[in-house]
Specification:
The structure holds 3 protein chains of 3 kinds. Chain A is an all-alpha fold. Chain A has 14 helices and no strands. Chain A has 2 domains: 1-83 and 307-328, no CATH class; 90-276, MetI-like (MetI-like fold), CATH 1.10.3720. The two termini of chain A are 38 Å apart. By secondary structure, chain B is mainly α. Chain B contains 10 helices and no strands. Chain B has helices spanning 29-46, 48-51, 82-118, 120-135, 138-149, 153-181, 183-190, 195-232, 243-250, 259-287. In chain B, α4 (120-135) crosses α6. The relative contact order of chain B is 0.14. Chain C is an alpha/beta fold. Helix content of chain C is 35%, strand content 22%. In chain C, α5 (150-160) crosses α6 (166-179), α6 packs across α8 (198-210) and α9 crosses α21. The longest helix of chain C is centred in the middle third of the chain and has 18 residues, at 228-245. Chain C starts with 10 loop residues before the first helix and ends with a helix. The chains are: A mainly alpha, B mainly alpha, C alpha/beta. Chains A and B meet through α1, α6, α7, α11 and α12 of A and α4, α5, α8, α9 and α10 of B.
């Protein structure tokens, strides 16, 4: 229980700190959002009119007061108003979210499937013998490093080029809702699958080198048996810690993918907000993503002791044994 | 075939035999090739004139010509030589990436080393700060910084650098802590050493290699992130031949002029792949 | 937890009882006579090579050995001898880059059918492993899957080999756990490996190895990661199960004394070839190979390995080190109760003598040694070295100056030298820290100390990774001595080394003590070594001082039950248990000069397992 309390406390602290940082970056330092929008001399507003508008937005009060007001309204679910359009940020997000969620969910599922397939094939001990099998193994092992090295936007463009223009498989214009998702999902899946596959390969390799795996072999276990019973559970643990990082990749990937494919969504909204210096929108996106990120990590932290009994003790520290040195 | 499948895990050489370091492993073909790619890119960045006589911004031929002996990467919509633009773009993209890595390396490592060697409250506070940096998704953090600093290659580089501070800080802290716990550091304290002397003589040298490997890795990822910002239009303004912007400009001709996007993209991928490969070679060379 | 022969399955009874006589006639001859029964395992001319970057490396070059049904053959050798490779080949699990390049491995079943294992397809191997050949691995800590329960791990071989009935598996698992002497097997089956002590984990692994009652058990250094008293009980258990099931045991060990105690046949390996093979008694009494003689003369529990006159304190002189009422607490996270690592320990060490701190893991011996060296201020008590109160030094300049008086040598010579420094830089560093001498003087001091520890001078320019373990430990000793300390704390300083190297280092330490009038605090788990190198001894257990006094008195006439247990657990000494009479004859012939403990604990040493198991759960 102490563990749960400590984790939740830590998550809250990080959340508060991140909110402060985002507020400083996007609300305090850029100065006055009102001036940014109405200060342009072309609009021909007088100083008195500006002051009036500022007072109406509450921009003339001390920073600290404004900070706590913003914090309070975020807690109530009021995310402020877009400078650019004047619309409520929460309304903009609600409109954009479904499309992005579909893209992200499909992208994540395909990425995990791809990564697991690559990792299992690349580490399968049965593929050590034959020359051809070894070649396939080496090829698959080279794939994730290649995939992380490709610019996401470039993947999208090349996919359009190949599948839409060269092969004509996926229409660019007038595509149905499903057809229009195929290429964006693929674009998003590749950069997310790559680091996941790398971590999986590394951790499966490490588990396979563990003495308890040799012991299972010495009891007559087949490779498939090893993978499903022993390796899978041990290797999934390090991959779990990737969950937060993958979410970050997912957010970044969504921004780029939506820009490449011209899909409306949270990513596009973010890109437009940056271009227009529409800080309230970006602040809302940053805060919401951070909340999700912290929640994901919290869930992973709380899940860990369930999957790994070693972490269930209250004084959980890595068990140290004097033997390790003497035996080697 | 690669030599890495030959690790003698159950090999006879036991603890008694002196371990001969596989220094030669650093000279595997993949590593050599990666080094060549990276050196070429660096040379492009430093001396673009040696590699192409064409100007990156002037029209030198008919528009939208396919790659040929004269224009290796073809020409773009205004008749500029794409190869010349890629070569000249190296200085923008690579310099920006170096700036980004420098920001992350200097700030992050300083935070990490202080946290790891001082410990206590200072460590606790610094690491919460790092947690906070990690909690904001990378692209959003760099976008927030870009919004604050304004568009441009240098600002984009700083923004990307800030996102890597946390990674550098975490790694250097954990290295410092593990080296600090080692028996040779204890032995150095035991023979009358002071913390500054030991930090300088033992802890920093033995913590450096993984941090350098990370810096190499981050160089590649910074190139990617900076080109992403450039692609989205937050980096250098046109007609600067920055790599991301280059690909963004070619995007409108994707149906007719494949070379405008494909070839610059391949160059970016090759450079990033080379840095990744070198990074893992540095990491392996150390652990071997 | 008595042994439950009645719960043992009836299948075992089909195995023939241990053929006492056969064991002794078998080992040398692979005679093809039909009259003579084939040995269970028959290895002839076995060669094993590894593919490495430097080409083929031959680890095993034509060895012969055999294991008779119901008997123990020990494969003895130091690191790099090829003993592990040979064992891996017998179960068909060589590393990926290794291969059998010649010879034969044959397994003969109870039905007399001889099966050649070299070249067996993987499928056939899998059917053999666990059913006919069982493995007891080396390190019980990493050999159990940490995220699965004990019951799941023990049930693995059953499920692998086709058992489907859940209840039947569960019943068998509990029966096996009970068989290997675990209390409350049903609870243990639901626990995870980290909840068990090392000894219990090794029992679990033995249970899993026995699940399908294999004819051949390969025990690969089964106890080298365990405390001595636990080691004895685990070896006893293997003995007992062998007798009960009639299995043959191939025991891989670096410890000649363990082999002497447990094996019927000894095969001494070195550099991949057999130096000597034969019945244990014969090999020990009259070794024919020079190497076997070296191994024997370097084994502290079998021979006197250090010639050392006892050091007597000068009359009237105050002791150099005085430890009084030492107490060390550690605060555990998430728990209010502090953990007491050392509680109420007091002893004195006269100048120029060696005081041993003896105990098993968790006894507090290292914590005590580190308090003397000033590495951690104790919670309470006093440590006086000369006139200096070590506990009051603080962390500043006074502590740094005190470092010249007491030096610590770590256990692991691989971790205690900075891999990036040259040996001369390592040796000169203490002088730089204490601002002694100029560059040239420091350099010559470093060279002088290399000479002192009998290392060639060209070592000075090398890095630690270019040296062997023994050479590194010499460097560590030289570094400790370069500040000319009065006291050297040796924390298990020879435990990580091969026996022959260990003997050399112990002799070096004895010589240095005489030459430099050093006072040693010798921390060790090995009473056999302590008996030979120490003048006084403090026996510790779970932070408590059990007994303290002159070595001769404590070891000859132990007052405390625990000291007796420790003494009884030393391998190579005579035991009340079993049938190992050859150890007795060997001792008579070798004429050891150190007195032998008179008796082991009443009721046999097997009971000592309980104490260790309580600690960990």
């Amino acid at each position: 229980m102490a563990y749960v309390r400590r984790r939740i406390g830590g998550a809250l602290l990080v959340l508060v700190l991140a909110f402060i940082a985002a507020y400083i970056l996007l609300a305090a330092l850029p100065g006055d959002a009102v001036l940014a929008r109405y200060g342009n001399p072309d609009l021909g507003l007088t100083a008195a009119q500006l002051a009036e508008i500022r007072a109406a937005y509450g921009a003339d009060r001390p920073q600290l007061v404004q900070f706590f007001e913003t914090a309070g309204s975020f807690l109530r679910g009021d995310l402020g108003y877009s400078i650019q359009s004047g619309a409520a940020v929460s309304a903009l997000l609600a409109e954009a979210l479904p499309s992005t969620l579909t893209l992200a969910a499909l992208g994540l599922v395909s990425a995990v499937a791809l990564a697991v397939a690559i990792a299992i094939t690349a580490t399968h001990p049965g593929l050590r013998g034959h020359r051809a099998a070894r070649a396939l193994r080496n090829l698959l092992r080279g794939l994730p490093p290649l995939m992380v090295s490709l610019p996401v936007f470039w993947i999208g463009i090349v996919l359009i080029q190949v599948f839409s223009f060269q092969l004509g498989l996926v229409p660019v214009l007038n595509a149905g809702p499903i057809e229009s998702l195929i290429l964006p999902v693929a674009t998003l899946a590749i950069p997310i699958a790559a680091p996941l596959a790398q971590v999986l390969i590394r951790s499966i390799d490490e588990v396979l080198a563990q003495p308890f795996v040799s012991v299972a072999r010495a009891r007559g276990a087949t490779n498939t048996w090893l993978l499903s019973r022993t390796v899978a559970r041990n290797a999934v643990l390090p991959a779990l810690t990737m969950a937060g990082l993958l979410f970050g990749e997912l957010v970044g990937g969504a921004v780029v993918t939506e820009a490449v494919f011209g899909r409306m969504g949270v990513g596009q909204l973010t890109a437009q907000a940056v271009a227009a210096r529409d800080t309230p929108v970006l602040l809302a996106v940053v805060v919401i993503s951070t909340v999700v990120f912290v929640l994901i990590n919290l869930v992973v932290d709380l899940l860990y002791p369930v999957l790994d009994a070693r972490l269930r003790r209250s004084d959980a520290a890595a068990p140290t044994r004097r033997a390790a040195v003497a035996v080697r | 075939m690669s030599a890495q499948t030959l690790t003698p895990s159950g090999a006879p050489a036991g603890s008694g035999a002196p371990a001969r370091a596989p220094r030669l492993s650093a000279l595997r073909p993949g590593v050599v090739l990666s080094a060549l790619v990276l050196l070429t890119a660096l040379a492009w960045a430093l001396l673009p004139g040696v590699f192409t006589a064409q100007s990156p911004t002037a029209s030198v031929g008919a528009s939208l010509q396919a790659p040929s002996a004269e224009f290796w990467f073809g020409t773009d919509a205004t008749g500029r030589d794409v190869f010349a633009r890629v070569v000249h773009g190296a200085s923008h993209s690579i310099t920006a990436a170096v700036v980004a890595v420098a920001v992350g390396l200097v700030v992050g490592t300083t935070l990490g080393v202080i946290a790891g060697s001082v410990g206590g409250f200072v460590e606790e506070a610094l690491m919460r700060l790092v947690d906070m940096l990690l909690a904001i998704p990378g692209l959003l953090l760099s976008l927030s910084v870009v919004i604050l600093l304004g568009f441009g290659t240098t600002n984009a580089a700083i923004a990307v650098g800030i996102t890597s501070i946390a990674t550098f800080a975490r790694l250097s802290r954990s290295r410092v802590i593990s080296v600090r716990r080692s028996e040779y550091v204890e032995a150095a304290f035991g023979s009358g050493g002071t913390l500054p002397a030991i930090l300088w003589r033992h802890i920093l040298p033995n913590s450096a290699a993984p941090v350098i490997a990370l810096a190499a890795l981050q160089l590649g990822s910074a190139i990617l992130q900076i080109s992403t910002l450039g692609f989205l239009g937050y980096g250098a303004p046109p007609p600067t031949p920055e790599w991301g912007l280059l690909i963004a400009e070619g995007r409108d001709y994707v149906a007719t002029a494949w070379w405008l996007t494909l070839l610059p993209g391949l160059v970016v991928a090759a450079v990033v792949l080379a840095t990744n490969r070198l990074s893992s070679a540095i990491g392996q060379g150390e652990s071997a | 937890m008595t042994t439950h022969h009645e719960t043992w399955t009836p299948e075992q009874l089909e195995h023939p009882a241990r053929p006492e006589s056969a064991a002794h006639t078998e080992q040398s001859g692979q005679s093809e006579h039909s009259a003579q029964p084939q040995p269970l395992l028959d290895v002839t001319g076995l060669r094993i090579a590894y593919r490495t970057r430097r080409g083929q490396v031959e680890a095993v070059r034509g060895i012969d050995l055999s294991v008779a049904r119901g008997s123990v053959t020990a494969l003895v050798g130091e690191s790099g001898s090829g003993k592990s490779s040979a064992a891996q080949a017998v179960i068909g699990l060589l590393a990926e880059n290794g291969a059998v390049t010649g010879g034969s491995i044959a397994l003969t079943g109870a039905d007399g059918v001889r099966e050649e294992l070299v070249g067996l397809p993987e499928r056939a191997w899998r059917e053999l492993r666990g059913t006919r050949i069982g493995l007891i691995p080396q390190d019980p800590t990493s050999s159990l899957d940490p995220v699965r329960t004990i019951g799941a791990s023990v049930g693995d071989p059953l499920r692998i080999h086709g058992w489907r009935d859940r209840e039947r598996i569960e019943a068998r698992v509990i029966e096996l756990l009970e068989r290997v002497g675990l209390d409350d097997p049903a609870t243990r089956a639901r626990q995870y490996p980290h909840e068990l002590s090392g000894g219990m984990r090794q029992r679990v692994l033995i249970a899993a190895a026995l699940a399908l009652e294999p004819e051949l058990l390969i025990a690969d250094e089964p106890t080298s990661a365990l405390d001595v008293t636990v080691q004895a009980t685990v070896l006893d258990l293997i003995d007992e199960l062998r007798v009960a099931t009639g299995a043959g045991v191939l025991l891989i060990t670096h410890d000649l004394a363990v082999a002497a105690d447990r094996a019927d046949t000894l095969v001494v390996l070195r550099g991949g070839t057999v130096e000597e093979a034969g019945p244990t008694g014969k090999v020990l009494a009259a070794p024919s190979a020079e190497y076997t003689r070296t191994l024997l003369s370097d084994a502290p529990s079998l021979r006197q390995i250090v010639d050392r006159a006892p050091h007597r304190p000068t009359a009237g002189e105050a002791p150099l080190v005085r430890v009084r009422d030492l107490r060390q607490e550690f605060h555990r996270r998430g728990s209010g109760e502090p953990f007491v690592a050392v509680d109420d320990v007091s002893f004195e060490i006269p100048r120029g003598t060696t005081h041993a701190l003896v105990g098993e893991s968790g006894s507090g011996k290292t914590t005590t040694g580190r308090a003397i060296a000033g590495f951690r201020a104790p919670t309470a008590g006093s440590v006086l070295v000369g006139d200096t109160e070590v506990t009051q030094l603080g962390t500043g300049k006074r502590l740094r100056e005190f470092r010249s008086t007491v030096q610590l040598v770590h256990q692991n010579p691989f971790g205690s030298l900075d891999p990036r420094q040259s040996i001369s830089a390592i040796l000169e560093e203490p002088l730089r820290n204490t601002r002694r001498g100029n560059r040239a003087e420091r350099r010559s001091a470093a060279l002088h100390h290399l000479e002192l520890v009998a290392l060639p001078l060209e070592v000075a320019s090398r890095r630690p990774r270019e040296l062997s373990g023994g050479q590194r430990q010499r460097v560590a000793i030289a570094r400790a001595l370069i500040l000319q300390p009065e006291v050297v704390v040796l924390d298990e300083a020879v435990s990580a080394l091969d026996v022959t190297v260990q003997a050399q280092i112990l002799r070096l330490l004895a010589r240095l003590q005489d030459e430099l009038a050093l006072t040693y605090v010798f921390i060790s788990h090995d009473l056999a070594v302590v008996r030979q190198v120490a003048d006084t001894v403090t026996v510790m257990r779970r932070g408590q001082q059990v007994e303290s006094g002159e070595v001769g008195r404590v070891l000859e006439d132990p007052h405390h039950e625990y000291t007796r247990q420790l003494l009884a657990a030393i391998p190579g000494t005579e035991r009340a248990w079993g049938h190992h009479h050859r150890a007795t004859t060997d001792r008579a012939e070798s004429g050891r000069s150190t007195p032998v403990p008179h008796e082991s604990a009443p009721g046999g040493h097997r009971r000592t397992a309980s104490s260790e198991e309580i600690t960990a759960s």
